[in-house]
Specification:
- It is a single chain.
- The chain is built from 4 helices and 4 strands.
- The chain is α+β, with helices and mostly antiparallel strands.
- The protein has 2 domains: about 50 residues, no CATH class; about 80 residues, Phosphorylase Kinase, domain 1.
- Strands 1, 2, 3 and 4 form a 4-stranded antiparallel beta sheet that branches.
Length: about 150
């Protein structure tokens, strides 16, 4: 029995989109491959464009972190216990009020108080790194970054 046959139940044929050998795979950079239909090539190019990172605005993370949203955010549960917590912050559930009065459910990340200069520097560096990445993320399973 060949390696390819062993990958599928014996009662079924391999799916039609499976090629006979791994060398038939079209590498992502190969645009003119005769093995791709025009529809497949169009779908591939669309997916590639969506996955391409756009250049960041310089200082965008710092600018977003300086936008004080405290007056527009309310915690859902006023308990002092966070719903979730991490290395340097606690996360609460709350509501964000937009300019037009629309309310959106949000996660509120509250930094833990520390009094050590080296640790403060480390937390600030990590937070800027996190925000820099988070600003550009666009996925239905990832919360949007609104500001700090």
């Amino acid at each position: 029995m060949s390696e390819q046959q062993a990958a599928f139940p014996l009662t079924e044929a391999p799916p039609s989109n499976v090629t006979e050998s791994p060398t038939d795979h079209t590498p992502p950079g190969d645009r003119g491959s005769p093995t791709m239909s025009p529809e497949e090539q169009g779908a591939f190019e669309t997916a590639e464009q969506q996955m391409t990172l756009q250049p960041r605005e310089k200082g965008k993370a710092r600018q977003m972190m300086n936008s004080n949203l405290a007056s527009r955010v309310t915690r859902e549960n006023t308990s002092v216990h966070a719903g979730h917590f991490g290395g340097y912050a606690n996360v609460f559930v709350g509501w964000f009020r937009d300019d037009d009065g629309t309310r959106t459910r949000v996660a509120i990340k509250v930094l833990q108080l520390v009094n050590e200069p080296d640790l403060i520097r480390e937390i600030k560096t990590n937070l800027i790194r996190e925000v820099t990445v988070w600003i550009d993320l666009d996925h239905p399973n990832i919360l949007k970054f609104l500001g700090a």
